[in-house]
Amino acid sequence: MSTASTRLPEGRYGRSSDQRADRKLRIAGSVLGAALLALIGYFAYHYVAQNEISAEVITFQASGDAVKVHLEVRKDAGASGYCTVRSQSADGAEVGRADFRFSGSATRIDKVVTLRTTAQGTTAELLGCHAD
């Protein structure tokens, strides 16, 4: 007795449609993956390369109608720009916001700035810095 084979003979009928679909999906996935990596790289480069000014709040001292904020700013030698600082009251309401400008050839600036408030401020928060 012989056993009947259930497989098709090799190479006689070409590739199955499943194999062709798998190949197209692999190509489409590779193209989309490469495009996504390129997009992430583009945004990462612009975030790092275009950020010429960075700063942090070292300390702050609140009084009745003002908050004195000690800022440390790091920037490129020729860069000029501004940093935005805000203060909030104990209940979370914003009581003051101002932009402080920085320019010059120094790459590191330590400065105490005074933020005028409409009520007693309890915080000093650096919202961000931007180059001109």
TrEMBL record:
Mark the transmembrane ranges: 25-45
The domain of life for this entry's organism is Bacteria
Keywords of the record, alphabetical order, are: Membrane, Transmembrane, Transmembrane helix
Organism, by scientific name, is Streptomyces corchorusii
Under which name does UniProt file this protein? Answer: DUF4307 domain-containing protein
Concerning InterPro entries, the annotation shows: DUF4307
